[in-house]
């Protein structure tokens, strides 16, 4: 991984430090685990990042050379940040939390961060900060869609179910019983899982789902059933229990709330995104439910194409603030947020 800020560039940049423990006022268990020293500025120049198309690389390069100007949502102030690639993280379903861990500079594991984010959501959901009817409907739309609708947008729709790890042998026995009386394996599995597993359809079940990291310590396994308009397509039974819950927009907003920061998800689409270089980059904002007291963090969302909205993998971005007058001039920024 290459060093970013060398020579005269150090005069223009300084890293965004993790929150100072003395100024961390809410009851996060991470408050005592932030370094009070500025971290070493390290990362990759965009020219060294693999897997980018030319159009993507040209757009992302501007984040390091011209920066992003962020305006504080409640104060008449703004800052210029330069963004660089923070390195790869595992593609194991925990990438939102692995990438956020790097971007925040915290020294807890991604599994611990995942649990803390779920706990933040639970507390705020129970306190009414998440409108329950609207939130539950959004969760239902994502994880238990109405299979009578939505086919004008999606060729394949997916239902997520939660199976207790301790019940997997019982579920398998029930599936085999149905196979013995003439049902196909997939039809039998669909019947058993849909009758006896937990639907992800509200805040309570979302929290159970989002706790799943693909570890043997998880309480539940994820079952994914895929449908086309003609009916059942495939079932991912996840027999080894390694599937993790991919971080969604609700998780990102809970993460933003926990750390009192705005989180921007950066998408840079390639030639398959049907956009030119000037219009291929997007910053998707996620605001905390409460005051913003810390600088924002940025995550890169990688994808395989436009139709997937890029929602395949998160990677961290290293954020450096401009400190010299020349570097911080408003006209320098490539993007204004």
Notes on the structure:
With 337 residues, this protein is an alpha+beta fold. It has two domains: 163 residues, Cathepsin B, Chain A; 106 residues, no CATH class. It is 28% helix and 21% strand. The chain has eight helices and twelve strands. The strands form two sheets. Strands 1, 2, 3, 8, 9, 10, 11 and 12 form an eight-stranded mixed β-sheet that branches. Strands 5-4-6-7 form a four-stranded antiparallel β-sheet, with helices on both faces. Strand 2 and strand 3 form a beta hairpin. Helix 2 crosses helix 3 and helix 3 crosses helix 8. The longest helix has 17 residues. The protein is elongated, with a radius of gyration of 22 Å. The N terminus is likely disordered. It comes from Amborella trichopoda. This is OTU domain-containing protein.
Compile the SSE list and pairings.
Blueprint: E1 13-15, H1 54-65, E2 68-71, E3 78-85, H2 95-104, H3 110-126, H4 132-143, E4 157-164, H5 168-180, H6 185-196, E5 198-199, H7 203-210, E6 220-228, E7 231-236, H8 249-259, E8 263-268, E9 281-286, E10 297-302, E11 313-322, E12 335-336
Parallel strand pairs: 2-12, 8-10
Antiparallel strand pairs: 1-11, 2-3, 3-11, 4-5, 4-6, 6-7, 8-9, 10-11
The DSSP helix count reads 8
**What is the name of the CATH architecture of the largest domain?**
Alpha-Beta Complex
- The CATH topology of the largest domain turns out to be Cathepsin B, Chain A
Provide the domain count.
Answer: 2
**Terminal Cα span:** 28 Å
Query: What are the segments in which pLDDT stays under 50 over at least 5 consecutive residues?
Result: 1-41, 304-311
Average pLDDT, rounded to a whole number, is 81
The Cα radius of gyration reads 22 Å
Tell how many strands the DSSP assignment holds.
12
* Net shape: elongated
Q: Largest sheet, if any?
A: 8 strands, mixed
How much helical structure, as a percent, in the residues?
Answer: 25-40%
For this structure, what is the CATH class of the largest domain? Alpha Beta
SS strand fraction: 15-25%
Structural class: alpha+beta
Write the element-wise H/E pattern from the N-terminal end onward.
EHEEHHHEHHEHEEHEEEEE
Region (Disordered): 16-38
Domain OTU: 84-320
Protein name: OTU domain-containing protein
Organism: Amborella trichopoda
């Amino acid at each position: 991984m290459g060093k970013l800020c060398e020579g005269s560039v150090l005069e223009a940049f300084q890293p965004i430090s993790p929150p100072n423990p003395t100024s961390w006022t809410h009851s996060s268990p991470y408050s005592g685990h932030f370094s009070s020293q500025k971290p070493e500025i390290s990362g990759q120049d965009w020219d060294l990042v693999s897997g980018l198309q030319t159009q993507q690389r040209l757009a992302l390069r501007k984040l390091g050379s011209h920066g992003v100007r962020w305006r504080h949502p409640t104060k008449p102030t703004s800052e210029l940040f330069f963004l660089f690639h923070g390195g790869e993280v595992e593609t194991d379903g925990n990438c939102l939390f692995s990438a956020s861990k790097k971007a925040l500079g915290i020294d807890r594991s991604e599994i611990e961060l995942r649990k803390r984010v779920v706990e933040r959501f639970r507390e705020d959901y129970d306190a009414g900060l998440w409108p329950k009817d609207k939130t539950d409907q959004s969760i239902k739309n994502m994880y238990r869609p109405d299979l009578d609708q939505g086919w004008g947008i999606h060729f394949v729709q997916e239902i997520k179910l939660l199976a207790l790890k301790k019940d997997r042998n019982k579920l398998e026995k029930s599936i085999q019983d149905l196979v013995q009386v003439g049902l196909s394996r997939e039809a039998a599995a669909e019947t058993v899982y849909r009758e006896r597993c937990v639907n992800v359809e509200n805040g309570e079940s979302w929290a159970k789902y989002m706790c799943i990291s693909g570890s043997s310590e998880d309480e539940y396994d994820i079952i994914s059933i895929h449908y086309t308009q003609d009916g059942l397509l495939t079932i991912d039974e996840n027999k080894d229990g390694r599937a993790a819950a991919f971080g969604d927009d609700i998780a990102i907003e809970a993460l933003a709330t926990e750390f009192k920061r705005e989180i921007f998800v950066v998408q840079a689409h390639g030639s398959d995104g049907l956009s030119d270089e000037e219009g291929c980059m997007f910053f998707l904002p996620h605001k905390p439910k409460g005051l913003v007291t810390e600088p924002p963090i940025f995550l890169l969302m990688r994808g395989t194409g436009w139709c997937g909205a890029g929602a395949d993998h998160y990677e961290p971005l290293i954020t450096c603030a401009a400190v010299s007058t020349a570097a911080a001039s408003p006209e320098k920024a490539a993007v204004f947020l």
